[in-house]
């Protein structure tokens, strides 16, 4: 295909050409960054929790009226729940990954350290490893006899009494690697307060925080052998087969109500709901970004259709002359396709620069990493495809112009 | 001439229906998307208390130690006050009115037979809250400063909660069991729900939550009811003592009516910080003390999420692409009519006349695009209302936004038509006439 006649024609429509290129460039810049944002959101939504998500259900209740003993009540409830058919394991936990409401502690590597090293999630509750389906990669799980009631621990800390410390604890692999890089974390000590020391006895592969808003610190978690007692911030976790979840929820609520008819159940749900609730903003944003990209491609495509149709009808006579002089239909078709390819390519070149600029602006205003190079071709391919698709109709119409047009006057 | 140009424009647009349709669609889509997001932003940044908001201020002290990791939860703990600081500001009475408050979340145990216990959100606050924010009462009244001092076991209910608990009967004087305590109802407010709930902390769903009860802050602390808001402690191991000088959890609002009062209060805060610093409690410079206006506070609290702002920029970027698109199409269309332009010019039309003629043609596209844009924006807002977000239910277009939509559409299409019209009026008539 000879490019010279195409370039000569385009030179006569400089302003329109520039506008079309600008439109393609803007679309390209938005699409490159938009696809990147979508992938970021999807990655965020994919954040691992480390737990057997499809096998868990959560039941949460209002606090009981004193003078009932909340620790005894928790043990009774757990025993009741353990009896329910289909339940493989039960635990009481103060939080769940992506549950929103979180409990965190400031971790120190020495009791006299003036400022904490980092902040990590504190999971309390017996039998969490088995119930949540956590994967233990080193050491041992916490034993039932190591668990202490929360009021005892709080009193000891208030009195400055260090009896019972260091307590054993489990940490997540991410936390262990951050605190003791390249070292065996088993047996290491850490402090949550100047008198509260803990010894790492085991490491779980993954356990996400309840408020995992920062991907870098999302997996910093600890499991501490403390009984919290029945209270509004605690919830019962039940592990079961995925197919039995709804059945187990109904049976569990019925059993709890049977044990105490005045009890108020505030939440009962399969874990899936918790996860989908936590990431709903990301899902909505990804959906909006997809719609914007589709709309951009649509508008750009329609713009190309409009202009190309215009040019075809404007050049009917010239097309007729070319046909009369021996050009085949394919030649005419290729002429318009090549013209479109040239314009879109020029637009994409400008678009790459704009995309880079836009990514810098986004980095300035939002917590985003640099736009990786892999996303640049994405916008280019999308626009080449939409350009060729858009021009096909008008180009076919141009190819259908009969040579006889050349002999007619305007 | 306007009528004639309008007629010319309509004829010209009718001659190329597909192209006209494309341009109207492009403007409509761009305007629709932009106005959806601008409307969301408009309702989110609306004034929650018109008439009163300009006199309301938030004092901001910084009792945090110089070093430490205080932002683990994604917000600044010094956005809230400690109990000693709040009490000091309250007792100083340096503002016309002042009130400390915190979120409450209590289990209501109705006395009526067959009614289940349920949780309600409300506020622990002090006497000035009601007069400062202008909370309207249906029955009874609020409590006095003496009740605050005594930690009286009283409660003010919102009408909906009062009706739920006591049916049609007068709730004032009745007892209600909240948590493990019996409180006497002394007043019932009418339906009052500022949007956003500006005085609540960042943990609140500020566009959908509302307070259903109000009880004295001192009572809540005496009875150890616990707060549902953000609580941040530093220094010693927190032991749940809400009166601690190293635990922030209280919101504080003051009413200042004149610029002199504002300046005086700002100085008062700096003096107070300096005094606390000399006592060794505060470590940061006293000039760190700030006074935020209501709207300034909402900006400080990042009321509009980053995602919403990003969506607005996306929509505006989309509008820009649509405008460039329309510009290219209009240019192609206008230049194709060089012959017609030349004839008009030869018959005596000035360049200005040609410019106006094409300007009107662009505006017609703008009006049509604007109407389409309103429809698309309504559709967009309908989909926003079906999102799970807290602000979703308030996303509605009002008359001012409707007019803005149409105006923006006409403006955008006129801008898009500017360059094409200018190019059209520069066509050299002689050259074109020869080829006719």
Describe this entry's structure for a reader.
The complex is a heterodimer of chains A (410) and B (436). Chain A is of the alpha+beta class and 410 residues long. Chain A has two domains: 4-46 and 281-407, no CATH class; 53-278, no CATH class. Chain A is built from twelve helices and 13 strands. In chain A, strand 8 (189-193) and strand 9 form a beta hairpin. With 436 residues, chain B is α+β, with helices and mostly antiparallel strands. Chain B has two domains: 2-45 and 305-435, no CATH class; 53-300, no CATH class. Chain B is 49% helix and 16% strand. In chain B, strand 7 (175-178) and strand 8 form a beta hairpin. In chain B, helix 2 packs antiparallel against helix 10 (306-336). The longest helix of chain B is centred in the last third of the chain and has 35 residues, at 351-385. The model of chain B has no long low-confidence stretch (mean pLDDT 88).
The succession of helices and strands of chain A, N to C, reads: HHEHEEEHEEHEHEEEEEHEHHHHH
Derived structural class of chain B: alpha+beta
Helix segment tally of chain A: 12
Fraction of residues in H or I helices of chain A: 40-55%
For the residues shown, what is the average pLDDT of chain B?
88
Main β sheet profile of chain B: 6 strands, mixed, barrel
Average pLDDT confidence of chain A is 88
How many structural domains in the coordinates of chain B?
Answer: 2
